[in-house]
Every structure is written in structure tokens, then in C-alpha cells.
Amino acid sequence: MAMREKFATQVDAELLKEVRALAKQEGRQLQALVDEALADLLEKRHGSKPRGHVMAAYQASHARYAGLYKKLAR
Length: 74
Hints:
Number of helices: 3
Helix content: over 70%
């Protein structure tokens, strides 16, 4: 497990209310959503390559439906 570090910040009250509601709706902890949001921000800012599971789904789809894709392209 990764080492965790506490930090404090301030967030718009309405935004925090919505994030807490989302965490409750998804049955997740607020911290999990914060981790996800920070990771997504860094990924977006660093211009990293697509996530592995996204590329795997694309490649599987392409392998299965290559003929259809070619017909649609025409």
C-alpha cells in the first residue's frame, strides 16, 4: 500500500457537497474520489498515453470488428 500523507486545503462548499454526495452514492470514501481526481488531473496535465484498460478495450474491439470498421469507413 502506498504511503499516505495528510494535507489541508479549502474547497468551494457546493463542490464539496456534490463530491460527498457522489461518494455516498457510489459507496466510496471521499478520500478515494480525491485520489482519483488528483491522479486524473496529473494524467491530463502530463499528456500521458491512454490508460491501459482503455487501449485494451479498443484493441479487442478492433480485433473483433475490423471488417465492420473497414465497411463503415467506405
